[in-house]
Every structure is written in structure tokens, then in C-alpha cells.
């Protein structure tokens, strides 16, 4: 009886180790930013009476979600500043110039997470936000994280909103006037599992 | 938004300081029985500092962008090189080497840290980066040599006056292309050159103006380089404006030389003003076409009191 028990216990232990190893490997999923189903848009006050809306058309990024241990998740986003689009080519050209985004000197706007915490409905992500050559630590509330499978591909989506002041990021203060200092950036991103 | 009053104050400060310091320096040098050599250069430097102090362009250290690098590195380097090149203790070959090094490094200084040196970001290659650095440097060398040679042949301040015109035009072109801060920086520079030129009106030697001419050419180059590679000034506009002062050579043809130096000076200024006015005209036309809708009230956004009831509907039907 004992002779039969030992191999059974050994086999059970081995099976448990294997299943644990497999589940650990599957806990962290990497997603690539799906440009077609995502958007990074912004709005800023004009003369303090209305809003001017715009978007960035070229964005790249990835995120790694570890549902077992959210603190191991990471989020990265890189926005090409040159792709600013306010539906007015003349204004877009003006925004690319050194008085505003200075896209030849600072071609990208980047976010890279440094810590992630799970919160009801999503994640609280702290990271380095770099714009116009200035890096600041900011915290985002990424709401979403529901994963679905569509046509054989796994997808997950998040939304967030952040407020930034141009004056905090070394924009020319003399150009802050008709266009308000504060801008609201809205990010709705969908990730495609690799 | 443009601030005309501020620009006028900065230009006035630059003009006054430049002229005053140039006159004082010249008087000091001539009182020792020497031919003035640096008076115009000192005047130019003082005028630039005074004008920029009033304009307040908020320069950062370390330099964060091309304009900072131009004001903090390139322009002071030009002044220093011109000051050193005239010292008897420095051999001629060393002076030329200093000027050559300044010319060769001018583009590299201005594009430091930008996409032009990062082919991976811009999608270009190393050869493109080399072209951005070397081609403008060659143009600067040609213009610098041409203008310096012209100054050496001519007495008076007409070359400095033409450079002041070109720098002023360059500033306006950069502003019309959409870069307000970069363009406005040129205004006190132009006024400082003008102040030095006025102080040099009765000059009996071209040596005094030669040093200031070199620094003024670098100032013109810097403004146009920034406007072209960081603003939206076209290559043609930038090259025409940079080369415009070379049109002053037209006053050296024998027909005009016979008429005397004052007549030559007038011809020189007219010849330089021609291409500058042409590029300004086209730049203004482009500005009105592109930026006009952003700055003006659209035709359909009329006041309600301007139309009678029913009249608006009739107007809409007619388009």
C-alpha cells in the first residue's frame, strides 16, 4: 500500500508544480496598442469661452497586464507630436512650431509607468510623463481592463483623462493667452494581445 | 500674440545702446591715436544685450531649444571670434581657423538634440543629417566671405545698413511663417546693427565695421536657420534672404564706382532691399491665405442686427 502511495504523491506533486508554472506564465499578458481602435485627443480653452479640440493621429505603445499581481503590470505610450490634428492645417502647422509643441526638437510625448495598483474598475498607474523636454511624475486612473475575444484575437480596453498645464512643461508662457494654459487629454486605448 | 509695443521698446533700447557704446568706444580708440577697430563690434554687442534684456525672451540654461543655443552659444561665439581675430598676437592663420571652426560648427550647434540628429525618429539617415549641418555652413561661409570682402572695399556703413535690413526682414519672415518668438528676437539684433551703422557713418576706415559685419552675418544666418529648420520658412526664402546682402556688390560695377561712395551706398541699399521686399511680399501673401481664416471672423458669422427677418434666409438661398 505504501509503495503504491509514494509514486501517487510524487505524481500529484509534479502535476501541481507544472500547473502552477503554466498559470504563472499565463498571468502576464502583453498587448500592443491598436491604433485603429484607439484615440488620443485633447481639448483646450479658446479665449475662455469655448473649447478647441484636437487629436494625435500617430500613437504607439504597449502594456503588460498581470492579473495575478497587478503591481507587475506596465504601461507605455509614445505619441508623435507631429501628428497633431485640429482639423485645420494652418493651425496644425502653427502648433508644430517652436512656439508650441516644437516637434523638431521634441518629436514625441511619452508616458512610461513606474508603479501600478489595482483599483475598483481598473488600475491606478503612476509613471513619467515627458512632453516638450520636461519629465514629470503623474498618476492616471485607467478604467477598463475587460478582455474579450473577437475573431480569434484577444482585446482589452482602457480609458483615462488627464489635465496638464502647458506652463508646467516649459511651453512659451508668452503664447499662453488666447489658448488656455490647461489642456485635457483623453486617452481611449484598445490593446491587441500578442 | 505679437506685441508691437514691446518690440519697439526692445529695438529702441538696442539702437540707443549700440550707437552710444560704438561712439564711446570709437572716441576712446581715436583719442590714443589709433584707428578704431572694435568700436562697431562693442556697440553691436551692447545693443544686442540691451535689446534682448527688454524683449525678455526667457532663455533657459542649459539651452533647451535652437533659439536658446543661438543666443547663448553661437552669437557670443561669433563676437568672441571677431574680437580675437584682430589681435596682433594671434597669427592670421589662427584667426582664419577660428572663423572656419565657427562656420563649420554653426549648424551642429543649432540642431543639437533635435530630430535632425536622430534619423531613427525622423525616418532619415546619417547622410541627411550631414546635409543639414554642412550645406547651411557652406552658404554661411560664402556669404561671410562675400560680405567681408565687400566691406573691405567700401568705406562707410552701407554694408552694415544692408545687413540690418536683412536681419529685420528675416525676423519678419520667421514671424509670418508662424514662429513669433524666433522672429521677434531678430528685431533688437537688427536695431543693434543699425545703431552701430549710424555710429560708423563718418568712419574713415573699413576695419572698424569689418568685425561687426562678421557678427551680423552670423546673426542673420542664425535667425534664418532656426526659421527654416524649426519654423516653416521655406528653403528658397531663407537662401534669398541670406544672400540678399551680397546684392550690394552690384554697386561695385565701374559705372557706379565713378559716381562716388555716397551714390554707391544708395545703389547698394536699393539692390539689397529689392529681393528682401520680394520675399516679404510673397510671405505676407501666404500668411493671409493660410493664417487669415484663423485670425479673422468668418463671413457667415455676422451680427444678428445686420440682417432683417427673412433677409438672412434669402441670402442663404443665394449662397
Shape of chain B: globular
The greatest interface here is:
A-B, 23 and 30 residues
Largest sheet of chain A: 8 strands, antiparallel, barrel
Q: Secondary-structure element order of chain A, as H and E? A: HEEEEEEHEEEEE
In terms of structural class, how would the helical and strand content of chain A be classed? Answer: alpha+beta
Q: Percent range for helical residues of chain B?
A: over 70%
Weakly predicted, low-confidence segments of chain B: 301-319
Mean pLDDT of chain B: 87
Oligomer: heterodimer
Determine the strand fraction of chain B and express it as a percent band.
Answer: under 5%
Secondary-structure-based class of chain B equals mainly alpha
Give the end-to-end Cα distance of chain B, rounded to a whole number of Å. Answer: 34 Å
What radius of gyration of chain A results from the CA coordinates? 22 Å
- Shape field of chain A: elongated
Taking Cα atoms only, what radius of gyration of chain B do you get, to the nearest Å?
A: 22 Å
Average pLDDT of chain A: 87
Question: Mind explaining what this structure looks like?
Answer:
The complex is a heterodimer of chains A (194) and B (319). Chain A is an alpha+beta fold. In chain A, 18% of the residues lie in helices and 54% in strands. Chain A is built from two helices and eleven strands, in the order αββββββαβββββ. Chain A has helices at 2-27, 89-96, and strands at 28-33, 39-46, 50-56, 59-66, 74-80, 84-85, 108-119, 122-131, 134-150, 153-165, 179-193. Chain A has an eight-stranded antiparallel barrel. In chain A, strand 7 and strand 8 (122-131) form a beta hairpin. Chain A is elongated and about 85 Å long. The model of chain A is unreliable at 17-25 (pLDDT under 50). Chain B is an all-alpha fold and 319 residues long. In chain B, 72% of the residues lie in helices and 0% in strands. The model of chain B is unreliable at 301-319 (pLDDT under 50). The A-B interface holds A 88-91, 93-94, 97-99, 102-105, 107-108, 133, 170, 172-175, 177-178 and B 1, 3, 58, 60, 64-67, 113-116, 118, 121-122, 177-182, 226, 229-232, 290-291, 293-294.
